Amino acid sequence: MDHSRRLAAVIRYLVTGGAGFLGRRVVDELERTSNAQAFVPRSSEYDLRSPEGIDRALAASRPDVVIHLAAVVGGIGANRAHPGRFFYENAVMGIELIERSRRAGVGKFVAVGTVCSYPKYTPVPFREDDLWAGYPEETNAPYGVAKKMLLVQAQAYRQEYGFDAIYLVPVNLYGPGDNFDLETSHVIPALIRKFVEAKERGETKVECWGTGRPTREFLYVDDAARAIRLAVGGHDGPDPVNLGSGEEISIRELADKIARVVGYDGELVWDDSKPDGQPRRRLDVSRAELEFGFRAEVFLDEGLERTVGWYLQQRRDPASPGDGV
After folding, report:
1. Catalytic site residue 143?
2. Could you tell me the end-to-end alpha-carbon distance of the chain, in angstroms, rounded to an integer?
3. Are the C-beta atoms of residues 28 and 54 closer than 8 Å to each other?
4. What is the percent of the chain with per-residue pLDDT over 70, rounded to a whole number?
5. What angle do CA 39, 288, 17 make, to 5 degrees?
6. Are 211 and 278 in contact (CB under 8 A)?
7. Closest CA to 258 of 179, 309, 322, 188
8. What are phi and psi for residue 115, nearest 5 degrees?
9. Which of 42, 66, 291, 324 has the greatest number of beta carbons closer than 10 A?
C-alpha cells in the first residue's frame, strides 16, 4: 500500500462508554476530524466487567485504538454508598480490558483516569508526579485507586510488552448532556437543577452541601473530547497527563455564579454536616500543552451559560437533542 492510501485508511476505534456524556463527544470528535470508524459496545450486549464480554467486543470491532471511558461513577453521596462496587467494577473492567486488548494486538490504548486519584492534600497545582504522594480523599478513594491501578498496568505493559498505552487524568467535566440526577450527579448539574426547581417553586432558600470553602477545577466536555483526540495522535509515553482548564473556583463562588445564570435570587444555606471532599483541586496542565498541544477553549462562564441553557431547553422539550448532544 502506498503512503497516500495509508493516510486515507480508516482507523477503527473501540470507545467504551461511547454512549455516555463524554463518550458521545469523543466519538463525534474522532469522526468529524479524522477518517475514523468508532464502535461503541452497549452494556446490554457486552458486559465489560467479564473477560468474555471484552473478547466479544474486541472481536466485533477489531480496533486499532481502544479508548476506555466507561466507569461506574457518581458524586460524593454515591461514592459513600457504593465504595465496594465502585472499586471492583472499575478495577476489573480496566484491568481485563487492557490485558485483552494487548492479546488482541491493539495498536494503542488510551486509559482515562480521574482527578480523584490524587492524594487528599496534594500541593496546588496538582502535578502528575504527585499522584503517588499520598492516599486519595476518603469519600472517593476506592474509585480513585481503582482507576489509578490502570496507570500502573499501562506502564508495566509498556515496559514488558512494548504496549502503547497512555494515561490521561481529567478534572471534573461538565456541559450539555450531563447527568442531572440529584442522587448521582456531580456538583455543577446538581446545583443547576436545585436552583432551577427552587426558582420554579418560588422557594426562598436552597440547601447546599458542605461549607462551600473547597475549590474545584472544571473542564467543558467538548474540550475534554478534543484533548483525548489530540492525545491519541500526539502522545506516546509512560507518564500520565493532566487534562484541565487551569481555572480554580470555590464551591461557594461556583454556587453564586450558577444562581446568577439561572436567575435564582434566594438564600443559599450551607449544611456543614455534609462532607466537603478534597480541600482544593487545580491541575498543572502544562504537560498536555507540551506533549500534544492541548489548551482549554471554553471557560467556566461561557460553559455554564451553555449548560444551563441546554438544561432549560430539555425541561421545555425533553425530546430535543439540545446543544452538542
Report:
1. yes
2. 38
3. no
4. 95
5. 25
6. no
7. 188
8. -65, -20
9. 66
- Residue found under cell 502522545: 235
Q: pTM for the complete prediction? A: 0.92
Of 143, 167, 174, 311, catalytic: 143
Q: For residue 201, which amino acid is it?
A: R
Nearest in space to 22 (alpha carbons), one of 306, 278, 240, 221: 221
From the list 111, 106, 110, the residue with the least C-alpha distance to 12 is: 106
Contact 99, 85 (CB under 8 A): no
What are 213-245's pLDDT values in tens digits?
999 999 999 999 999 999 999 999 999 999 999
Contact status, residue 220 vs residue 17, Cβ threshold 8 Å: no
Which residues, other chains included, contact 103 with Cβ-Cβ below 8 Å and sequence gap of 6+?
none
What distance in Å separates the CA atoms of residue 46 and residue 40, rounded to the nearest whole number? 10
* CA separation, residue 75 to residues 1, 96, 156, 162 (Å): 50, 25, 31, 36
Is 3.40.50.720 the CATH classification of the domain at 3-316? yes
**Residue 188 to residue 174: CA distance in whole angstroms:** 7
Q: Which residues of 229-248 are buried (b: 16+ CB within 10 A; e: fewer)?
A: bbbbeebeeeebbbbbbbbb
